[in-house]
Amino acid sequence: MMKKGLLGILVVILVLGVGQYGLAAQIELELWYGLGGTPGEALRELVDMFNASQSEIKVTAHYQGNYFDTQQKLIAAVSAGVVPDVVNLEVTAVVPFAVAGQLVNLEEYIDEDYDLDDIFPGLLADGYVSGGLYALPFARSTPVLYYNKDLLAQAGLPQRAPETWDEFTEWIKILDDLDQGDSSNPIYGFSHNNDTWSFEYMILSHGGLISDENYNWHFATDENSIGAIERFREFFAPGSGGRFVLRSGEVDAGIDFTTGRAAMVIQSTGVLTNLANAVEDRFEYGVGFVPMGTQRAVATGGNSFVIMKNISSEKKEAAWKFLKFMTSTEQAAWLSLKTGYMPLRQSSAALPVMQERFAQDPNFETAVKQLPYAVPQATYMHIPRGSAIIQEALIRIMLEGQPVREALRQAAEELTREARRGGFTR
């Protein structure tokens, strides 16, 4: 009830306090987005609030499928010469479209009325491409560790997140033994969906190198990187306590956690609200930082707004006013309260409604506290099939027994071919 009250206060602020975003004549804008579930509902609600706040601009939001679907449809639209006006893109998809000259440099529109310095630096960095700012953050996230306090207590462990990978390794073995070998009702110390975030936080937290702006793939030769993935593989070796999951229907690490089958998962802060709703009152859970190796480090994720370049000047001006609305202090706080995504502005986090939420549920503030250790995702994510190539390498390592060095070398070779094919390198 308290959370609904906080949201209600913000809705009043959003609808009544945005007259400064109006234009002289109505302009219709088409927005493409790839958010489903609660985040998608929140985006549509914010669009409705913007439309209700003024009569000069009307934004129509069209769902395009998931992030990948949205990116592929935008590629097709660019080729056909008929593009939407504004797009909500997965953060790593911004670079290819900016490099191709398809996006507006937003620095042309930023003035003293827009406080760019107020946006958390860790969330703004990946909007810059070749010295220009081509995207503003919207629903942004980092991976965090979710843990089942009841299972930790049952295992005689502290009811907190493990601080280090050494501690994590020890704990998941202990937690894995809670089922006492009952295969009909297994308990996993750690369940994990195959993703690229894990590839990055393992390497980064062990002081490794992944790639650079010239699309050199250091992960295949850097010893810290190779050692980090070797260690990651050990989490899922027989008897180690980990479960490596290829998502399919009900086979999902998140479901393992919310049903009490997994003591720990590492997933996006953006699923916090959905996870809390799924857990209900079955057990008490907490949220902590991703464990550290030689240092703390995670990659950011989520999505950002871009304005397409090949639209009229009038529409670009209208689109910028829409982006100002969607990324302002109150809207960012409202989105965070609604979904669990991070508030993108420091002023949003400082609002009384956010501070009250942090006090009510400290889990909600974990991702904000982890932000000083966040960096943009590595450049392989810019490459067509870049994410898929890394995920395929992880499958070969975790499930098929391919040696780590061989799998990483193969992935680097595939990325090099894709980079050349996509025009990123020669």
Mean pLDDT: 92
Tell me the radius of gyration: 22 Å
Question: What's the count of strands?
Answer: 14
Number of helices: 18
Low-confidence stretches: none
Q: How would you name the CATH homologous superfamily of the largest domain?
A: Periplasmic binding protein-like II
3D shape: globular
What does the model show?
- The protein is globular and about 70 Å long.
- Helix 1 packs parallel to helix 2.
- The N and C termini lie far apart (57 Å).
- The chain has helices spanning 2-16, 37-53, 67-80, 94-99, 121-124, 149-154, 165-176, 196-205, 223-234, 253-258, 272-279, 313-326, 329-339, 346-350, 352-360, 366-370, 386-398, 404-421; strands at residues 27-33, 57-63, 86-90, 128-129, 132-133, 136-141, 143-148, 190-193, 242-245, 264-268, 285-288, 298-299, 301-307, 374-375.
- The strands form 5 sheets. It has a 5-stranded mixed β-sheet.
- Strand 1, helix 2 (37-53) and strand 2 (57-63) form a beta-alpha-beta unit.
- With 426 residues, it is α/β, with parallel strands linked by helices.
- The protein has 2 domains: 2-141 and 301-375, Periplasmic binding protein-like II (D-Maltodextrin-Binding Protein, domain 2), CATH 3.40.190.10; 143-299 and 383-421, 3-Layer(aba) Sandwich (D-Maltodextrin-Binding Protein, domain 2), CATH 3.40.190.10.
How is the topology of this model organized?
Elements: H1 2-16, E1 27-33, H2 37-53, E2 57-63, H3 67-80, E3 86-90, H4 94-99, H5 121-124, E4 128-129, E5 132-133, E6 136-141, E7 143-148, H6 149-154, H7 165-176, E8 190-193, H8 196-205, H9 223-234, E9 242-245, H10 253-258, E10 264-268, H11 272-279, E11 285-288, E12 298-299, E13 301-307, H12 313-326, H13 329-339, H14 346-350, H15 352-360, H16 366-370, E14 374-375, H17 386-398, H18 404-421
Parallel strand pairs: 1-2, 1-3, 8-9, 12-14
Antiparallel strand pairs: 3-13, 4-5, 6-13, 7-10, 7-11
Helix pairs in contact: 1-2, 1-13, 2-13, 8-9, 17-18
